[in-house]
Amino acid sequence: MRLSLYQKLAVSLAVIFCFICALVYSWSKQLELNSKHHGEQNLHLALAEHLVQDNPLIKEGVYDYEALENLFHTLMLLGPAFEFYFVDENGKILTYSAEPGKVKRTHINLTPLKHLIANPSATPVYGDNPRNPDQQKIFSVAPVFNNNTLQGYLYVIIGGEAYDTSLNHIKSNDSLLLAAIWLGSALVFLFIAMLILLRFFTNPIQRLAKDVSKIEAANYSLNDTKLSIYSTQKSNEVHSLSRTIRAMLTRINEQFKALEQGDKQRKELLTHLSHDLRTPLASLQGFLEVLNQSGDKLSAQEQQEYLQVSLNNCGQLKQLIEQIFELAHLENGEISINKETFNLGELIYDCIAKFSLAVEKKGINLSVEPEICDFPVIADIAKLERVLSNLIDNAIRHTPRDGSIAVRVKRGDDNQLFVQVSDTGVGIKHEELNAIFDPHYQASNSNKAGRQQGGLGLAICRGLLKLMDSEINVQSELGKGTMFSFNLPQKKA
C-alpha cells in the first residue's frame, strides 16, 4: 500500500510521539520514585540507630532471638510500613517477624549497609529485600555491639510488603483512574492538534503534486490546465516553490512552442529550398538536353547562349548551396569571429569596386558618404565584407535604372559608428519589415532576380552581425526606397 506524504508524516509523528511520551513518563516516574526514596530514607535514616540505643534488648547484645522477634512483631504493628531484620556480621538473617515462607533470602549483601553507615548523605541507597530476591529497597541500618564486639546489624526495610500492597490498592481507586483518563485525553488532544497542524503545512505540497500530475496528464501543456493559486508571501517556502515550479513549467511550455515553431519554419525552409534548387536544375537539365540532342542543328550563337544560361543556372545553384551551408553554420554556432583593427573606408571602397560593372550596366549611381571615409574599426573584416556585399547586391537588385545607392558612415554615442546602405528602390511594405530577416522569406516586392537568391542573404547578414555584437535595422517606404543600418565599435584614439 502506497502512503501519501501526509500519511507518512502522520505515522512517523505518531511513532515519535508515543516514544517521547513513554520516555517522558518513564523518566518522570523514575525521578518521582528517586525523589520519594531520597526523602523517605533521609526521614527514617536514624530509625535503626534509635531502636538500638533505646531498646536494652538490642543495646546490650542480642542473645534472645525469640524476644527480639516479638519486639519486631510489635514494632511492625505500630508501623506497618517497616520490616525489621537482625543479621549477623556476615549478612545472615538471624531473626525477623513474618509468616512462614514470606522471607525468601537467608543472607543479604552487607556492602550497601556499610556504605550508608559510612556515608549517610549518599541517599538513596538500596539494599536487598529479604522477601523478594529480585527487588531492592531503601532501608535504615545500625550496627549492634556487645562490649565493643560487633554482633550484627539491625536492618529496617522502609516501605515493606504491607506498604506496597496498600499503595497499589490506592493507585487502583477511581480518583487516580480519572486523573489518568484526563491525562490520556490531554495527550490525545495534543496529538490530534499536531496532526491538524501538520495537515495545514503539507496541504500546499499535496496541491502542488496534483498540479504537476495534471500537467503531466496534459502532456506538459498549460493551455487547458487549471492550476491552483498560491500565496505571494515570500516567507512561505512551499508557496514560493509552487510559484517557481509553475514559472519553470511556463518557460518549458514556451520553449516547446518555440521548438515547434522552429521545426515548422525549417520544414517550410526545406520546401522553399527544394523548389529553388529544382528550378535552376530543371532549366539546366533542359538546356543540356537540347544541346545534347540538337547540337548539330543549332547555330554557334544559339549554342553559346544555351551554354551561358546553363552556366548562370550552375552559378545560382552554387550560390544557393553556399548560402544554405553558411546559414546552417551560423545557426549551429560553428562560425568563429576573428576581430582585428582595420580601415572601414578601404573595405567599403573595395566592396563597391566589385559592383562597378553591375551599377554601370543599370545606370545606378553608387556613392560613399563621406568620400574620405577614414574610420578605424574593430571587427572581423571577412564577415563585414560579406555583410556589405550582401546589402549592396540586394540594393542593386531592387533599385530601378537611373536610381541611386549610398553607403554612409556616421558617428554615434559611446564610440560607435553606424553604417547605412540606402537605395531609391521599390521599398518594402511596413507589415513585412519584421519578417524580411527570416530565412527564405520573399517580400512581395521581390523581382525575378531577387527570387533567385533564395531569400537567405538578409538572414546571413543578421547572423554575422550578431556574432560581432552588432544589430541590423531597416527603414523603408514603399515606392521610395530602403535603408539598412548597423553599428560597429570604433577604435579609440
- Name the quaternary structure: single chain
Q: Strand pairing plus helix content: what structural class?
A: alpha+beta
Q: What portion of the residues fall into strands of 2 or more residues? A: 15-25%
> Major sheet, described briefly?
5 strands, antiparallel
Low-confidence stretches: 448-453
Number of helices: 14
Count the domains.
3
> Can you give the mean pLDDT?
80
Task: Tell me, briefly, the overall form.
Answer: rod-shaped
Helical content band:
40-55%
Number of β-strand runs: 12
Radius of gyration: 54 Å
Could you spell the SSE succession in H and E letters?
HHHHEEHEEEHHHHEHHEEHEEHHEE
Summarize the structure.
This protein is of the alpha+beta class and 493 residues long.
Description:
With 493 residues, this protein is α+β, with helices and mostly antiparallel strands. It has three domains: 44-171, Beta-Lactamase, CATH 3.30.450; 229-333, Orthogonal Bundle (Helix Hairpins); 336-489, Heat Shock Protein 90 (2-Layer Sandwich), CATH 3.30.565. It has 14 helices and twelve strands. It has helices spanning 5-43, 47-54, 56-59, 65-78, 111-118, 161-171, 174-217, 237-294, 300-331, 344-354, 356-362, 381-398, 448-451, 457-467; strands at residues 82-87, 93-96, 126-129, 132-146, 149-158, 340-343, 365-369, 376-379, 404-411, 416-423, 472-477, 481-489. A five-stranded antiparallel β-sheet has the order 2-1-5-4-3. The protein is rod-shaped and about 160 Å long. The two termini are 77 Å apart. Mean pLDDT is 80; it is low at 448-453.
